[in-house]
């Protein structure tokens, strides 16, 4: 059984490789983990190409939703993107917040930070920056962000409660987040959960949908809303690598499901600070 630190290192190494891959390789895989399906081109991600601010060089095809589409970003907002990768969501957020706002991307993979900074420099954006750090302990001060977005990243972090707690710390009172992620309904077979490649590919690191929403509520957020939800259909050529015939039939016949959800929640406007001891 890997420790949290070991799991994070698996993800760091995998996403360092992904930063150097072509988008077509990433998009035909399980969130960029490997070229693991011959049945479909794109397992997880939605199409960004029509959104204002879209930059092809920054799109690695790793998302599982369009959180910036639902994030209610206004001109002048301070926006933070968790797990910012090559910067795609940051550049789309910048189109919403404009020149008077500020966008901060946070990623713990040096290769991704370097790629994102190079993309920002090419675009000439002086109000978009990228910081290396863990999203459980963001390298930003408390009560700074109007909006936080993230796309298919929290499921990769072992301590999701710590991430949600730090989101609360960083948001201004009255601020909100819109986060796309992978969640489960029912029990995923052990053979899928134990495989590190699938972990870095967004599925085995996911938690139950009801637990995910409960973590958000228990950390003090209000007006929790599932803005979008879709079933992620895992093709047989992937499942067959991990499940026997009987287990595959049971999986398909049961109530188990893998979903992409985009969740919105607000930090109460009367929250003067985060819980005692963290500000």
UniProtKB/TrEMBL annotation:
Family matches, as Pfam families: Methyltransf_31
Keywords per UniProt: Methyltransferase, S-adenosyl-L-methionine, Transferase
Enzyme Commission code(s) on record: 2.1.1.137
GO biological process: methylation
Catalytic activity: arsenic triglutathione + [thioredoxin]-dithiol + S-adenosyl-L-methionine + 2 H2O = methylarsonous acid + [thioredoxin]-disulfide + 3 glutathione + S-adenosyl-L-homocysteine + H(+); arsenic triglutathione + 3 [thioredoxin]-dithiol + 3 S-adenosyl-L-methionine = trimethylarsine + 3 [thioredoxin]-disulfide + 3 glutathione + 3 S-adenosyl-L-homocysteine + 3 H(+); arsenic triglutathione + 2 [thioredoxin]-dithiol + 2 S-adenosyl-L-methionine + H2O = dimethylarsinous acid + 2 [thioredoxin]-disulfide + 3 glutathione + 2 S-adenosyl-L-homocysteine + 2 H(+)
Source domain of life: Bacteria
All copies of domain Methyltransferase, residue ranges: 74-220
SUPFAM superfamilies: S-adenosyl-L-methionine-dependent methyltransferases
Keyword Cytoplasm on entry: no
Molecular function, one GO term: arsenite methyltransferase activity
Family annotation (PANTHER family): ARSENITE METHYLTRANSFERASE
Similarity annotation: Belongs to the methyltransferase superfamily. Arsenite methyltransferase family.
Protein name: Arsenite methyltransferase
